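Objective 1b. Sequence-to-structure analysis of Zn-dependent hydrolase.
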Amino acid sequence: MKINAERLRQHFEQMSEIGRIGETGVCRPAQSLVEKEAFKLAKSWMEQAGMNVKIDHFGNLIGRLEGKNPNKPVLMLGSHLDSQPYGGRFDGAAGVLAAIEVVTTLTEQGITPDNPIEVISFADEEGWRFNKGLFGVRGILGQLEEGELLRRDKDGITREQALRDFGCDPDKFEESIYPANSIAAFLELHIEQGPVLEQKNQPIGIVTAISGPLWLTVKLTGFAGHAGSVPMNTRQDALVGAAEIIVALNEIAKQDPSAPTVSTVGTIDVFPQSRNIIPEKVEFTVDLRDIDIQRRDQYEAQLRKCIQHTADKHQLSYEIIEDTKSEPRYCAEWIKDSIRNECEERGMKVPELMSGPFHDSLMMSYACDYGMIFVRCKDGISHNPAEYASYDDLAIGTDVMYGTVLKMIAQLQHSLSI
């Protein structure tokens, strides 16, 4: 093993103390003082690995190992250090710490790549604080949408204010956007967040594609009334309507048992939240994902028809806001081959699988070729303090990543010299 497994373990142990909740959980909100503390620690490791480090105006932490040809496109590695509010120690952090370890090993081995290598911890991958994720990666690609800086968290703080408090300047976003063709490729290591690798008794896997996420916010409005006096058949109960829609969404996603379609309603807000007032307003989120874009679009159409029918049935008005919509994105064959060949040279025959969760790689796929390595996690649990990946598996994944990076460096040097 080329990488230093003990150093990697220590880095995980130290990082997991930042934003710690309970024995094994973490809460590191995007653009918070806690994430800033995590960045400070990761920055110190990047600098020890010989990287120049900065935080850009989108709130991304970026370490750069200069190549022999600084003007060549960058080979980018990384993931994110922000977490869910009730999250685990490995989601996102595994990709950042593995990337730092890979570059540290390159430096220790005296290897200077032809292309520069950048390790990045993308800002706000998770998306829960401002209800829209992949902020940092979309930022560097010039893909932010109108009004994003006006989004507010539960405390009323806008994204713009959070960025300024973090030391960023939204007026200088242009300075942090990567020009077209300036990124050669992107490689991300991530815990699987599912049960497949554990079921196959394999420490790592090769990702083939990321399913396309659809995020909607649904708002229903009825009419409040006294819970004791308004007859049942005359009520305009927004919560009853929401309940029917949520149950219907669950059935829509399950209609093809062989499909990997998944749907979730993760948040619901009710107004005015009194036990003896009929709910007048309900707002809830929808998360619908599938590797088959036509099937997902079909299910979305069914959901929209259901919302309209339910609103008519209960005399409700409604609004549907599209927060995120992306088609499935497939990993580059040459990067999958690099990972596969590295595994075969070690006598490993690893499974290949799709990713249901989206990752920063999803957006990177629009700018360059990308690949992903999955690491087994216990019981497939993630977005939960019980999330767990063994340090042995993480070391195997990181060592395979190191070998893959060497192959990618060689291939990029060859292809760019032709």
